[in-house]
Amino acid sequence: MRLLAYFRMVLWAMLGIRGRSAAADDFSGVKPLALVATFLFLLLVLGLGLWGLATFAVSTLQ
Hints:
The chain has 62 residues and is an all-alpha fold. It has helices at residues 2-15, 20-27, 32-61. The chain has 3 helices and no strands.
């Protein structure tokens, strides 16, 4: 369950729509290394998803 909390925190931070007090509450008591690893994993998944979508779109045009 803690992993899902990290995912939620990172995704809200990426979108930038979280209030300061709520974000401060979320980020208190977290492990920085786990937070950075979660961010890098989600960034990789997002990048690969966009790359796959672009590859699919280009292949359908040919």
